[in-house]
Design brief:
- The complex is a heterodimer.
- Helix content of chain A is 0%, strand content 50%.
- Chain A is mainly β.
- Chain A is globular and about 35 Å long.
- The termini of chain A are far apart.
- By secondary structure, chain B is mostly beta strands.
- Chain B is built from no helices and twelve strands.
- Classes of the chains: A mainly beta, B mainly beta.
Amino acid sequence: NAGVMQNPRHLVRRRGQEARLRCSPMKGHSHVYWYRQLPEEGLKFMVYLQKENIIDESGMPKERFSAEFPKEGPSILRIQQVVRGDSAAYFCASSRGAKNIQYFGAGTRLSVL
Amino acid sequence: AQSVTQLGSHVSVSEGALVLLRCNYSSSVPPYLFWYVQYPNQGLQLLLKYTSAATLVKGINGFEAEFKKSETSFHLTKPSAHMSDAAEYFCAVRVSGRRALTFGSGTRLQVQP
């Protein structure tokens, strides 16, 4: 039973480029969460999605960031026109239901040059 | 709003010694509390969770934590440290009605031979 799969594991982008981070939840999980971890800090919640719906995006920056979880395929976190401050580890978690335990992927480490 | 404070960003113990990692929370409603462990370049793994049942919670790898409402604490302990316990530990809180986890800033545990 595969866990939460994130790809790529490492992503390098130049300032102004777009970054797309993918997350495939565990089998049977329909709830996905994205968190960001800046160096030497804890994880900060960004967005919570169910299939085709954004439920809570209170932690998402207002500009350049977007997320989706389509009916088919992985959840995507998209960062447009990246800046150096976007360099961080981005973790995805999934759960079976809204009250269930969140299981985390290994993360995508984004470096912006 | 809920918050989590982890006292001590770095803790060093000798192999075989007691491990004590501190976590205090603030929440206006009864919380769900979690401890996660993160090994280098990996995702977070759930150690244990408190969900308003027994106040002493036993987790994996010999760890346990005690919920103390009067002290608003949820400290993590292990009687005897192993070298393999060296990692970063995060305390997290979730309140009823919200799905996002709020994390502390983490404590890096070093185990000396």
